[in-house]
Write a structure and sequence with these properties.
With 408 residues, the protein is mainly alpha-helical. Among the domains are: 1-46; 177-408, Type II secretion system (T2SS), domain F (Receptor-associated Protein, Up-down Bundle). Helix content is 71%, strand content 5%. Strands 2-1-3 form a three-stranded antiparallel beta sheet. Strand 1 and strand 2 (15-21) form a beta hairpin. Helix 8 (212-247) runs antiparallel to helix 15 (351-407) and helix 10 (265-286) runs antiparallel to helix 15. The radius of gyration is 30 Å and the shape is flat. The relative contact order is 0.08.
Length: 408
């Protein structure tokens, strides 16, 4: 049944918009009038074509008009409706009625239309790759195959909400230092560009030899005043060049290798990747997705091409009969605790539970480590700002002290 997007006027003349399904445009017009509204514009919506583009993002792919939280809430609502014994089509109808975002409402209506035509729910979701990630689609496929779609959807909602909460806590911890860094840089630029010239102009009329710090300060101030546009252009060009290089496969691999090698950042990046690996693999296995297929999905969410290659090789080695713990044991990029917990899970038949425990542990460690790093950044920033301001003050005061000595 086609899905129509309409604009109508209610009894008070107020314009309203909505989504409905009907056999034809005429039937859609009749439905709108039956609701007490006057149709102004009716157009049939078309489902998004499936693209071949893949993504390495851990969370769900969201369009510009639909945020991740709305997807998580909708997933949980659908799980609740299915758990109550409501058929999928009626459950989707209920979601359409209670969804306030018209773009999401349109997407759900298109999914319902595809399912109504006899396609599976998984096939309907695959037509919206920007909304639903590979993880989401594969878990739903496993849920449909096992007859536990409501359980899988509940697990997906919980998975997405937990990941969003972790990201929010990390962003909140990093927001203040980043804000203070921008404010500090802006204050220094304003001081050197506008304040310092008005103070140092008194030294220009004197024939006294200026101290080296004062010469450097005046030169920096003059450079920023005359060539700020050129410096901005150079910085933009360098940033663009670095970004372009990092988008290329060789550049991304070089950066990913650095992230796993740099002192201080190595441990943090490995734990972040281990938490993502454990949490996502556990969710896929709990939903009934086979281990080899799960590894093919997980390799795209660790956000590191070096680790992705190791995980891909692990999938090939699994097909030869090797255990996952034995494969990862030889890699220095997987923590010993994770390898040991995988080994215990393989022996006990509870691999997904061990992976969840490992993910919980690493997520807590990552959050604590980031909080510790941000607490160290603040005093370092204060120290840098203090040194910069002290240099400016000393550069201004040194000529004044020398002039006083000459007067005496």
């Amino acid at each position: 049944m086609p899905v129509y997007e309409f604009t109508a006027l209610d009894s008070s003349g107020k314009k309203t918009r909505g989504i409905l399904d009907a056999d034809s445009q005429t039937a859609a017009r009749q439905k709108i009038r039956a609701q007490g509204n006057y149709p102004v514009e009716i157009k049939e919506t078309t489902a998004r074509k499936k693209t071949q583009k893949t993504s390495s993002a851990l969370s769900f792919h969201i369009g510009k008009k639909i945020n991740a939280q709305e997807i998580h809430v909708t997933t949980r609502q659908l799980a609740t409706l299915l758990e109550a014994g409501i058929p999928l089509i009626q459950a989707l109808d209920g979601l359409i009625e209670q969804t306030s975002n018209r773009y999401l409402k349109k997407s759900i209506a298109q999914i319902k239309d595809t399912v109504n035509e006899g396609n599976s729910f998984t096939a309907a979701l695959e037509e919206h790759p920007r909304l639903f990630s590979k993880i989401y689609i594969n878990m739903v496929r496993a849920g449909e195959a096992s007859g536990s779609l409501d359980v899988v959807l509940e697990r997906l909602a919980e998975f997405g909400e937990n990941q969003a909460a972790l990201h929010s806590r990390i962003k909140a911890a990093l927001l203040y230092p980043i804000f203070m860094a921008f404010v500090g840089i802006a204050v220094l630029v304003l001081l050197i560009t506008f304040i310092v010239p008005s103070i140092t102009s008194v030294f220009e009329g004197t024939q006294q030899a200026l101290p080296l710090p004062t010469i450097l300060l005046i030169g920096t101030s003059s450079l920023l005043q005359k060539y700020w546009w050129f410096l901005l252009l150079v910085m933009t060009g360098i940033l663009f060049g670095i970004t372009t290089f990092l988008r290329r496969p060789e550049g991304k691999k070089m950066w990913d290798t650095c992230k796993l090698s740099l002192p201080g950042l190595r441990d943090l990046n490995i734990k972040i990747a281990s938490a993502r690996f454990g949490r996502t693999l556990a969710s896929l296995l709990s939903s009934g997705v086979p281990l080899t297929a799960s590894l093919q999905i997980v390799k795209n969410i660790v956000n590191n091409s070096v680790l992705a290659e190791i995980i891909e090789q692990a999938g090939e080695e699994l097909e030869k009969g090797k255990s996952l713990s034995h494969i990862f044991k030889d890699s220095s990029y997987f923590p010993p605790m994770l390898v040991q917990m995988i080994a215990v899970g393989e022996q006990s038949g509870a691999l997904e539970k061990m992976l969840e425990k490992a993910a919980d542990s690493y997520e807590k460690e990552v959050e604590a480590k980031i909080l510790a790093l941000t607490s160290m950044i603040e005093p370092v920033m204060i120290l840098v700002m203090g040194v910069a301001v002290s240099f400016i003050v000393i550069s201004i005061l040194l000529p004044i002290f020398e002039m006083n000595q000459l007067i005496r």
